[in-house]
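Form 12-C: Joint structure prediction
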Amino acid sequence: MYQYDSFDQAMLDARIDEFSDQISRRLSGELTEEQFKPLRLMNGIYLQLHAYMLRIAIPYGTLNAAKLRGLAHVARTYDKGYGHFTTRTNMQMHWLKLEQAPDALRALAKVGLHTIQTSGNCIRNTTADQFAGAAADEVCDPRVWGEVIRQWSTFHPEYSFLPRKFKIAISAAPSDRAAVQWHDVGLYILKNEAGELGFRVMAGGGMGRTPLIAKTVREWLPQQHLLSYLEALLRVYNRYGRRDNAFKARIKILVHEIGIEKFQEEVEAEWQEVLKTFEDIDPREVERIARFFAPPPFETLPETDEAYEAALASDPEFARWVEQNVHAHKAPGYAIATISLKATGETPGDISADQMDAVADIAERYSFDDVRVTHEQNIVLPHVKKADLYTVYQQLKALNLATPNLGLVSDIIACPGLDYCSLANTRAIPVAMDIQKRFADIERQRDIGELKIKISGCINACGHHHAGHIGILGVDRRGEENFQITLGGSGAEDASTGKIIGPGFDYDGVVNAVETIVETYRSIREPGERFLDTYRRVGIQPFKEAVYGQN
Amino acid sequence: MARIEIKRQVQHETTAGVLEVEGQLEIRLREDESRNWTQISDDAELPEGGAVVVNLKRLAEVAEDPRFEAIGVRVAAGEDVRQIAPHLPRIRLVELEFPKFRDGRNYSSASILRQQMKYAGEIKAVGDVLADQLFFMARCGIDCLALHPSVREETARRSLDRYKFVYQQASDGRRPIWSLRNG
Amino acid sequence: MPQVMTAYDVPTGDVVYWAGNGWTRDVREAAVFDDPATAEAVAVRDAAAQIVMDYYPIDVELKDGKPWPTRYREVVRASGPSVRLDLGKQAEL
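Section 2 - Result
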C-alpha cells in the first residue's frame, strides 16, 4: 500500500502541531466553542452523547498490520479498547478526551494514520472498492487515483469551507462494491476502445433527508485530467451551493435545482478556464503512486489446493463460511476472504483491540500484510492462498470473527444510533441485534439469501438505510422510538432509493414487520430471485398488505 | 513571503452596516504601501476625489471617473467577481467579504481573480477573518487581511507559516509536493 | 416538572450536571432547581469561562429523593450505551 514519504509525514506533523495549538487555545479560553468547532471537525473530533468521538481516516479502506496495531494501541490507551468501522470505511472511537487528543493523534501519525478532514465542510475521505487489486473484474486498481485525490484534497485552500461535506467514491469494476452513485462525486474508471483509461464522472448523489442518486456529469474524462476537472467541479459547488439552509446545502441539491444540463455547462465552462493555468498531475507521479499498488508477489499456483478441497469436504462449517464469505481472486490459487463483524450479539462493525492485533497477525502472515474495510462495516483479507484458507478460518473462528453471514439477513449495517450519537432519534444497534436473534438459524439465513438490511437512527442516514434492500429509519414519535421501513434500496451499480412501506413501528413491532416481509418474499419468490429481485418484480403492494393487512 | 505590516484601529463599513473596530490587526503581505481608502455606501454621495471603495453595484459609476485616483470594489459572498472584468485595469483593491468564517465562497473569488483574471492589485479579506484561515486565504491570493478583533498577532504569525509544503496548486504559485518529488 | 442542568466538561467531554457547588458526573448528585434562571446563570458563567459547554436543562423525576432523567436519551447519557453495559457510568453504578 501507499507509504508516506518525508513530504507526507511533514504535512501530517504540521497539522498535528497546528491542531494541538488550537486545542491549547481552546482549553485556555482563547478560542470559543463556536470558533473551535469547525477546526476540531476538520480534525475528526465530534462531541457525541457520552464524550468526544474521534474519527480516523482509512483512505480507500486500506490498512496493513502496522496500522491495525496502531489502532489497537490507540483504542487501548486513549479509548475503551475497541473501534467501530463506519459506512465510509473510517474508524470511530467513542470515548476520547480532548486533552489527550494531541497524544492520540501523534500515536496515529507514527503508523501513518490521521483524522484529517473526516468531518467538516470539506472534502472527506475517498472510499473505494474493497476488492481492489484482487478482483478479476477491475480495469485497474482504483486506489491509485484514491491516493491522488487524497493528496490534492488535503488542506485544499479554496475548498475547506464548502457549503457542506463532500464525499468521493471510486470504483474500477462493473460490479460496484463502493456505492459510488450515492456520493457527491462518484468516479467509475473505464477503458475505452483504444485501451485508454478514463473516468465516468457522476455527481449529486447523497443520503440524508433527500436521498438522490448521482447523475453523469461527464461520460468520459481522460484520466490525466482528473484534478483539473475536480477543481472546476468543486469551484462550481463552492460558489453556487446553497448557504442559507444546512439541509439544502449538499451538491445533490444544487444539481437537482439547476438541473444536470446546466450543471454540466457550468462545470465545463469552468474547466476550460481552469485548464488555461492549472497543471494536471505529472504522469510520473501517478506511476510512482501506482508502484505502491502493484500486485504482491503471487506464487504461481494451481487453481485449487488438495488440502483446501479436503477441508471443504470434511468441515461443513468451513464450507459454509467459504461459500458465503469468500470470493474468487484474479490470481489462481488465491481467494478474497471477508471477515464479518456482524456476529450475533455484537455491535455491527465493532472490533476489539485484541481482535485488531490478531487480525494484524493473520493479515501479515496470510494476506500479504493487506486488510480492507468495506462500506458495509466488514473487513477483508484480500489475498489469501486457498491452501491457507482453512488455517485462517480456524484462527478467525477462535476470535469470533468467522460468522458465515456476508450479505445475509444478519449482516446488518447499523449506525451507532442513540447509544452513542447526539444526533440520533432512536437506537439502531439493539434493533440490529434483535433482528439477528430472530434469524439466528444460519440455514434459514442461507435459504433467504442475499438481503441487505441497513439501519439509521436518524434522518442523517449514516446507516445508509436508503440503500438497504430493507431500510430502517428511526424517528421520534411523540417522545417514543419509532421505526419506519423502506424497501428496494441498493448501493450497487443498480443504485436505487428505498421506498417507505407505511406507518412506523415500535421497537418490537419493527422486528416482527421485518420477519413478515422476509416470509412474504419467500412465499412469492421465483427460482434464483434475491429479495431485491422479487421486490422489483412485484412492487411494494404485496409487502404492504402482508405487514399492514388488506386495508 | 512579503513583509507583514500590523496596523491597529481600523474602521470598516460593510454591506450589512457600520462595523467600528478598535485594536484590529491588519496583515499585509504586499510590498507596496496601503492607501487611505474611503468606503462609499450605496446611497452615499460621491466625494470629489481620492481613493474610493464601492460595492459591485456602483462600480460602473465610479470606475471610469478620472476624479478618483484609485478605485476599490467590495465583493459580497455570493456575488460574481467576474463582473468586475470590464473595469479591471482601474481597480487597485478588491475587498472580499467573509460574513461568517464558515462561508468559503470568496476563497473562489480570490482564486479566480489571481489565476484567471490575472489581477495583480490588492485583495483584502474583511469580516469574520480568524487566525486559522489565514494560511488558506493567503494561498488563494488574498494579500491583506483585516482580522477579527479576537485574533492575537502571535497566533496570526504562526498560522501563516504553518505549512512548509503544499499538496496542490493555488494562486501563490507554490509547487505542489508531487511536482517537487518529480523534479 | 423538576429539572437539573446538564452540560459537557470541555477538557474531557464528560457529561456533567450542576450539583450546586460545581459540576458532577453523577446525575443522582445533581441539584434539582425550581428556578431555571439561577441554574442558567451558573451555566452561562461557567460556559463563558470555558469550563463547560453545550448546557441545557433536562426533566427529571425523583427516585429515592435523587434525580433521574425522564427522557430516554438522557438516561443513555447518564448511564452509557444500552448495548455495552460494561462501559460508561452504568459500569460503575
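Section 3 - Comments
The longest strand of chain A covers residues 215-222. The domain at 134-290 of chain A is CATH 3.30.413.10 (Sulfite Reductase Hemoprotein; domain 1).
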